[in-house]
Amino acid sequence: MLNEMLSPLSRETFDIQWPEGTLGYHTPKYFDKLPELEGVRLAIVGIKESRNQDLNRGCSEGPDFIRTALYQLYGSSIPWVDLGNIKAGHDIDDSYFALKTVCWELIKQDIIPIILGGSNDMAYGQYLAYTDYDKTIDLLAIDSRFDLEAREEGFDAKNYLYRIISHQPTHLFNFINLGYQTYLVNPEEIRLIDKLFFDAIRLGEIRKDIEEAEPYLRAADMVSIDISAVRLSEAPANPMGSPNGFFAHELCQLARYAGLSDKLSSIGFYEFNPEFDRQGQTAALLAQAIWYFADGFMNRMQDLPRVKNKSFVKYTTTLKAGKHDLVFYKSKKSGRWWMEVTLPPIKGSKKERTHLVPCSYNDYLMAGKDELPDKWWKFHQKYML
Known about the structure:
Distance between the termini: 39 Å
Oligomer: single chain
Strand content: 15-25%
């Protein structure tokens, strides 16, 4: 199935004598036949597609430029392969289907696709890979905009999220945006995000304490990164870039948090256009972000608190106004926090349901001040919709 969807890499460009110790030297690549997937945990996949992005068509040429920068970095123990590029479909929907199929084939083998875009509407194909699951997912986008234009006709990179939200049957439980810039977003989109109890964190808010992004990334099943979320001076390879945005090192930090997440099962890097790059600066940044993602993955703690045991410390706070307790768990292994959200019984049952939601130490401190954390409230409200 995979080899029907994928095109091999150019031998002239990538089958060369990479310096010993570099990722180019150590990474198995698709030339004549697909690399073996036994023991593989990560797979690099390019998608050379931008037909639904009128403002940034050249981003379809991005994947191989990112690879060239990535393979010059040093590292040797990453259990990954490079599967080449997904073949562009006859029309754009064929490309979405191909990306869905490749991602699903990898995810069901417990292999995380690292998608090199391509325009950010390819996140729709990434999302479709989860529609065969019998469960809902959390989608996180690192983006300066929501890409949520509400229009019934026409689908492109500016409204792919609207298509995801309106997809039936829905498989989206939560959408999380990190780094949106208010002056770039239609107020109607902000109101819709609030109405659906989604999480949208402004750039200034998340940059005040970048560590507060970690619980959101820990909650995500899939992550989509639009390079225009990084300030134009640090990532010039996007015609829609802004003077404001994340700094380069902050993107790498966010990518590492994504890699550390035991839940995350796919990640995509989109909207990089080599035509606008300067001295390969943006390609180098994306390569380093991927390096940090892989480094985070290699340091996963496997400490999801599915079973309450001695590896977690339990803390209980009492909210006077709510007249009930909030329960928190802290991992002794990683120092990460979770909080319990108790929901009413399903119809026909008397048993309440308990969910553990990723949170931060600041959420625990907030509860200690008799304030209900936003993460608790929004999670509860989404279930009540």
